[in-house]
Amino acid sequence: MNNKSKLRQVNLDDLELDLNNPRFAELYSGSQNEDDLIEYLLYSEAADEVAKAIVSADEFYPDRPLWVVENNGKYLVKDGNRRCSAVKALQMPGKFKLNLPKTNLDELPVLIYNKIQDIDARIVQEHAGNLFRRWERIAKALEVYKLFNSGSTVDSMKELDSQPADLIKLASFYYDAVKIGGDDLKQLLRRGRGKNSGRTIIFERLFKQSEDCGYRFKRKPAYVIEIFDKLKFEAFIKAVVNCLLDDIKGEITTDTIDKNLASFFEKLKTYGFDRKAIYTKAVSSNIQTEVTSNKSTQDRNSSGSATSDSQSYPTSSNSASSNSTSNSTGNNSSGRGSTKKYPLLKRKQLSSGLKDRIDEYFKNLDSNTAPNAKIAMARVLFECVMKFVIEETKYNGQTLMSKSNYFNTVYSDTKFTDFRKMKHKFIDLIIITKDRNAMISFDLDHLHQVVHNYKVSGISTVADQVSSNLIELIEFMLKDEADLLLSLDLTKLN
Description:
Layout: E1 5-11, E2 15-16, H1 34-44, H2 47-57, E3 66-71, E4 74-79, H3 81-91, E5 107-113, H4 116-127, H5 130-133, H6 137-149, H7 164-189, H8 200-205, E6 215-217, E7 225-227, H9 230-246, H10 254-259, H11 261-269, H12 293-303, H13 320-324, H14 352-364, H15 371-392, H16 408-412, H17 419-429, H18 433-441, H19 444-451, H20 460-477, H21 481-486
Parallel strand pairs: 2-4, 3-5
Antiparallel strand pairs: 1-5, 3-4, 6-7
Helix pairs in contact: 1-2, 1-3, 2-3, 6-7, 7-9, 14-15, 15-17, 15-19, 15-20
C-alpha cells in the first residue's frame, strides 16, 4: 500500500490559508491579504472559539494535524484553515482584537499529501461525518450543489443531509441572488457575530412566496431556481437585503415571516418592492425601471401622461416619458432635444474640494471615451455630495445632521462611513415624492458593479443617462440650504 501522505512539523510562516476552501470561499468577500482572511475566519467562522480552546489546552493537539499540499515552496492548507488561522492570530492577538494572551507556536503538525486529488478525496470522505454536519447551512448548501453539478444524485447525498434537495434550492438561489445583493447578501448569509449575519433562514422562509417575487424552483430531479421575472426578482433581493441590513436589532425573525407576512411585505414597499406590482423595462434606457401598470394607467387618465409622482415602486427619471418632456428639477434644458451638462448649484459655502470633484466629473470625464469611468465615478461623486450635505447642514440652526441620533448607525458599525445606510437614511427624510423617487431610482448597485468590474462594461449612452440623472440629484442636494431643509422631515432628526 502506497502512503498518500506524510506527517511532518511545518513552520507556521510556510502555511498558507486556502481562499478556495468550500466551507467559506463563496461567502468570503475580502481581499487576498492573509490578515483579512484570518479576521473573517475568526469572526465569521468561529475560529476565535478555536483560539480560546488552544489557549485553554495550552497546546495544539498533535493528533489533529492540518491537511496540506505543497504549493510553490509553501504548504496550502486544504483542511484545518480555522485552526491555522487561530494559531496565526494568537501570535499577535491584539492585532485581531482577541482578548487572549499571546501564544507562540512556531510549528504545526501537518499531513502533507502528494496529490491534490488524494486530499480532495479524503475531504469528501470527511464530509459524510460530523465535520460536514457542523458546517453552517449555507456552506453545506454550496458544497452539496457542487456535488450535485458534478453528477452526484440527490439520494446519494442523503448521508450528508436528510434533505439535500432543499440545500440545492438554497445554493442555486444564492448564486443568482448574490449577483444582485453582492457583499451585503453574503454578510447576511454567513454566520458571523454581527447583528446582520445568520439570516439564511429568513430567505429560505420566503421561498414559499417565490411566485410573488419573480422566481420559482424546478421540480424533481432539477430543484434549481428558475427566474421568470428578472426585474421583479432583482427588486425583491435588493429590498430584502436592505431591509435586513437596517434591522440592526434583529427584530425580523422566522416568526415575522410565518405570522406577519403581510406586514413584512408592506415594509418591503418602503425599500422599493411591491409583490403585487407589474415590473417592466423603461423604453429608452439600459437602466432597469420598475413601474406598476395600475398606477401608470391612473396617472395617464388623470393628466394625459405618466408621472413620476408614484406612491408605489418609483419610476426612474430615465423613463420614456421623462426623456420626452422636461422633468420638475430641470434635468433637461428648454431647448428641445438638448440636455443640461452641468448642475445648478445654489448651496452657499461649497467646499473647494467638492466643487473640484463636480467640475472634474461633468467637465473633464467624457462618456464616449471613458464610459466605465463616467459610470463608476458617478457613485463616488454622489456619495461625496451626500456626505457633504449630511455633515455640513445644520437642521436646527446649530446641530449638524450627522450628529443626530438618526444617523448613528451610518458611522458606528464600522470605522468607515456606511454609504448604503446613509443613502437609505437620507432618502427616508425626503418628503417630496418626486425627489425621493429620483434618489431611490439612482441604482448604486449597478454603479458598484462597474467600480469593481464584475464583468460589466459601460457604454456611452448609459454613461450619459447616469450623468443626466446625477445632475438632478446634485441639484436637489446642493440647492439653497434653507430650501433643502424645507424638503426634509426634520422631526426624525430629533
